[in-house]
């Protein structure tokens, strides 16, 4: 299916595959930059940092909820879908953010939280007050808390039931998440219309895409488990049809923390598409497992098993985000092993996961951080980075819940890490002051001044990746290696595939991506029978590597936790095409 030729938002380059090529950066408005010294990040602060994000090589900023909210779940408890939290600015500030991002050919993705609202939302207050009124059936009410008894509880550290008794309506209401987040009743056509209009409201303002938060939980049935019910898919199909018709070129991203065979359903089919993108939850914990176990097997298996998805769809891959490092997609034994490695202090755990940032998880080991990022950027899927991870920011496990990794961005060694001019006590969360990750030395300004810093390395690899469309658009084929710690795959794209995807120039390309998870130097033989006799060039420095033998094998030596991106080419004539 084709997008047709959507009207282009001013400033943006036309590219129907923009969401596949893009590198995404999740940025919490609250934590990024405070423009008016009230201690809280805001839109004007974020706008002032767009040049930085462009310099870094970011294509899309993902801005989690910034709507009016009591903030009992970081804004995922929405009180009014159409207004901006006053401390972040105004709707006009948001509009300016979109315009200024577009001027830099950067796009903006926002969260649409439709499974539930805050209990402070007017709809819920009205629903409690007047069961027979216009909002009476907007939520899932019951006289008993024994319905849907088999449904699992997601926030296991906080909630004991998915039902809470409301003393005003004198009924129970259903909530998949916190008890202050009542689930909307999608059986109500009025609710469905409201949701469509909320999505239209933000697309009218110019946003390029919507992350559909907690999308599996829209519908409940007696027979099912309330996760990815058929009616939920029907609803998503209708939402997609509306977006394609009214806003061609904008995208929907499914946040479905489920097994791959369930998640692929959120792409729909070529004829009846659902989302353009879906997060890949199972790959992420297996990357962390490989880094500690020094074994490639589990990760290799998950990469080999990647299911077919429509040619118009893409995965979103990530290492960290604003939530805990979720361990829902691994079995209990695996989970306990990972807790042992990565969450040895009970304060590091929350629900079914680990509430730490990337650098502390990887013991601030620069080689390991680079290996993990290089792997992320090589996978088949669009990579999502989390603000601050480009400088190796630390976390604060003494803060509550997931706030541990939502602390202010560290811009400089100045007061409040350059995040805000407010009195330090006024900040919504304190800046990180731990010994290893103290903002005095972990900050953008200091790393800008060091060409060998993680920040400069991240920028280099992002720009290098952009030069090779194969990473965004090509296939991934796992290849054999004779070492348990060495993972190898080839990313490839034919000229034809590139032309079919809207490309003009020749971008036929094959890149061998190899990663050693071993903690000491190793030597491995890689089997590439399809590429026998081809030469290899290092994408970073342009150095020629040994030619692949006529037997299809090549030997490589790795330093501890090292990786290569090697462009495969014909020995004489294909170079630099
Ligand atoms: O709005 C409620 C939550 O929705 C998202 O949740 C997802 O994160 C959970 C873990 O924090 C995960 O267990 C669940 O499967 C996901 O849907 C959102 O990202 C959260 O921040 C929010 O609390
Ligand atoms: Ca502010």
Automatic annotation (TrEMBL):
Keyword Isomerase: yes
Annotated keywords: Calcium, Isomerase, Metal-binding
Entry keyword Calcium: yes
Residue ranges constituting the Glycosyl hydrolase family 13 catalytic domain according to the UniProt record: 26-426
Enzyme Commission code: 5.4.99.16
A single MF term (Gene Ontology): maltose alpha-D-glucosyltransferase activity
Chemical reaction(s) catalysed: D-maltose = alpha,alpha-trehalose
Protein name: maltose alpha-D-glucosyltransferase
Family statement drawn from the similarity comment of this UniProt entry: Belongs to the glycosyl hydrolase 13 family. TreS subfamily.
InterPro entries per UniProt: GH (IPR017853), GH13_cat_dom (IPR006047), Glyco_hydro_b (IPR013780), Malt_amylase-like_C (IPR032091), O16G_dom_2 (IPR045857), TreS/a-amylase_N (IPR012810)
Entry superkingdom: Bacteria
């Amino acid at each position: 299916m084709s997008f047709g030729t959507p009207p282009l938002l001013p400033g943006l380059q036309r590219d129907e595959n923009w969401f596949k090529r893009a590198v995404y950066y999740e940025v919490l408005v609250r934590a990024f930059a405070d423009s008016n010294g009230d201690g809280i990040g805001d839109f004007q602060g974020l706008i002032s940092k767009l040049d930085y994000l462009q310099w870094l090589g970011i294509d899309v900023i993902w801005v989690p909820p910034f709507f009016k909210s009591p903030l009992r779940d970081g804004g995922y408890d929405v009180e009014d879908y159409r207004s901006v939290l006053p401390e972040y600015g105004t709707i006009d500030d948001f509009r300016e953010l979109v315009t200024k991002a577009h001027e830099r050919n950067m796009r903006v993705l926002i969260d649409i939280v439709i499974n539930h609202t805050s209990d402070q939302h007017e709809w819920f207050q009205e629903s409690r007050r007047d069961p027979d009124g216009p909002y009476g059936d907007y939520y899932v009410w019951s006289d008993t808390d024994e319905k849907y008894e088999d449904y699992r509880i997601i926030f296991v550290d906080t909630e004991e039931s998915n039902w809470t008794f409301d003393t005003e309506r004198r009924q129970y209401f259903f909530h998949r998440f916190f008890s202050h987040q009542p689930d909307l009743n999608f059986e109500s056509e009025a609710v469905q219309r409201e949701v469509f209009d909320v999505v239209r409201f933000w697309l009218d303002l110019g946003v390029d895409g919507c992350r559909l938060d907690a999308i599996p939980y829209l519908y409940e049935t007696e027979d099912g488990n309330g996760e990815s019910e058929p009616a939920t898919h029907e609803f998503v199909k209708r939402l997609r049809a509306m977006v394609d018709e009214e806003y061609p070129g904008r995208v929907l991203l499914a946040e479905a923390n489920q097994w791959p065979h369930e998640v692929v359903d959120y792409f729909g089919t070529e004829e009846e598409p659902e989302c353009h993108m879906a997060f890949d939850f199972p790959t992420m914990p297996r990357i962390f497992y490989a880094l500690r176990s020094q074994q490639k097997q589990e990760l290799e298996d998950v990469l080999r098993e990647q299911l077919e998805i429509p040619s118009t769809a893409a995965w979103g891959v990530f290492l960290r985000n604003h939530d805990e490092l979720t361990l829902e997609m691994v079995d209990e034994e695996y989970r306990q092993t990972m807790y042992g490695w990565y969450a040895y202090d009970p304060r590091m755990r929350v629900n079914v996961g680990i509430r730490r940032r990337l650098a502390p998880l990887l013991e601030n080991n620069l080689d390991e951080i680079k290996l993990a990022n290089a792997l992320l950027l090589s996978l088949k899927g669009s990579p999502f980075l989390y603000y601050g991870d480009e400088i190796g920011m630390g976390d604060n496990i003494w803060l509550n819940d997931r706030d541990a990794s939502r602390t202010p961005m560290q811009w400089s060694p100045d007061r409040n890490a350059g995040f805000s001019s407010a009195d330090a006590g006024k900040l919504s969360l304190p800046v990180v002051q731990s010994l290893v990750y103290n903002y005095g030395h972990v900050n953008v300004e200091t790393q800008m001044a060091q060409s060998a810093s993680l920040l400069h390395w991240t920028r280099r690899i992002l720009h290098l990746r952009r030069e090779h469309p194969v990473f965004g658009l090509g296939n991934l084929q796992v290849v054999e290696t004779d070492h348990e710690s060495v993972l190898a795959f080839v990313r490839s794209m034919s000229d034809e595939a590139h032309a079919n995807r809207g490309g003009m120039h020749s971008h036929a390309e094959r890149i061998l991506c190899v990663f050693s998870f071993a903690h000491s130097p190793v030597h491995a033989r890689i089997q590439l029978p399809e590429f026998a006799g081809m030469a290899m060039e290092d994408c970073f420095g342009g150095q020629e590597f040994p030619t692949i033998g006529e037997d299809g094998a090549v030997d490589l030596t790795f330093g501890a936790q090292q990786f290569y991106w090697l462009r495969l080419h014909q020995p004489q004539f294909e170079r630099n095409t």
